[in-house]
Specification:
The protein is mainly alpha-helical. The chain has six helices and three strands, in the order ββαααβααα. α5 runs antiparallel to α6. This is DUF2017 domain-containing protein.
Length: 173
């Protein structure tokens, strides 16, 4: 990510805000990812989709009846919160191709949750788990087909993780 791949933006603390200067390709990627999460949670919402299962796991996996009852009372609010969090990313992105993002603590926390949801969704689709060595996976994908959508998606997944870590560090300083 960054200008021609030369840099990746980092959040920094500036007073009460977390600030990053995003390049045009970063803005495009974040806009697309956040929009896809909103789409998944609205018109694409399907309990049989493994991504939905990952974002809304069964609270009682050994008791489907209790899980369904719990979901009945909590899913609407949880889904609304996830949509709002992805919306926080969309609302904070610059209107122009590149620019500054300035987040107060509440917006930064919403971004962290939304970035996490996006990474969870991508991880399911890419079959990436906590045990996956991302750099090895990316190297393998590059050797197989450097122009593949998998290389791009793994790169976006890695970028979101980097941005999430950068934001968390800025928030905690």
């Amino acid at each position: 990510m960054g200008d021609g791949g030369s840099r990746v933006s980092t959040f920094r603390r500036q007073g009460e805000h977390c600030v990053a200067d995003l390049a045009a390709d970063e803005v495009r990627v974040l806009r697309k990812v956040a929009s896809e999460v909103v789409g998944l949670l609205t018109e694409g919402f399907d309990h049989d989709d493994p991504v939905v299962g990952r974002l809304f796991p069964d609270i009682y996996p050994k008791d489907p009846t209790d899980s369904a009852e719990f979901r009945r009372y909590t899913e609407g609010d949880l889904k609304t919160a996830k949509i709002d969090q992805a919306g926080a990313i969309l609302a904070a992105l610059p209107d122009t191709a590149a620019g500054e993002v300035r987040l107060d603590a509440e917006a930064a926390e919403a971004w962290l949750r939304a970035l996490n949801d996006a990474r969870l969704a991508m991880g399911v689709r890419l079959e990436v788990s906590g045990d996956t060595d991302l750099s090895t996976e990316l190297d393998l994908a590059m050797r197989e087909d450097p122009g593949s959508s998998r290389v791009f998606q793994l790169s976006v997944y890695a970028y979101l993780g980097y941005l999430q870590e950068s934001l968390l560090e800025a928030l905690l300083t």
